[in-house]
Amino acid sequence: MKPVLEIQNISKKFMINHEQQPYLSIRDSVSNIFKSKKSKVDFWALNDVSFNVEQGDTIGIIGKNGAGKSTLLKILSKITPPTSGKIICRGRIASLLEVGTGFHPELSGRENIFMNGSILGMRRAEILKNFDAIVDFAGVEKFLDTPLKHYSSGMQLRLAFAVAAFLENEILIIDEVLAVGDAEFQKKCMGKMGDVSRSGRTILFVSHSVNALKTLCERGIYLKDGFVDTNSTMNLSLKNYLNIDITKANSFFRKTKNLKKDCEIISIGLFNQQNRLSSDFLSSEDISVEIIWENRNGLPTTPNLELHNLFGLKIFWTTDSVIDFNGSKKSNQGTYKSTMTIPKNLLNNGEYLMHVGLDLGSPRANYDCVINELFFIIKDSLTEPSLAKGNFNFDSNEYALLPAFTWKYELLC
Question: Checking phi first, is residue 131 left (phi over 0); if not, alpha (psi -120 to 50) or beta?
Answer without folding.
Answer: alpha
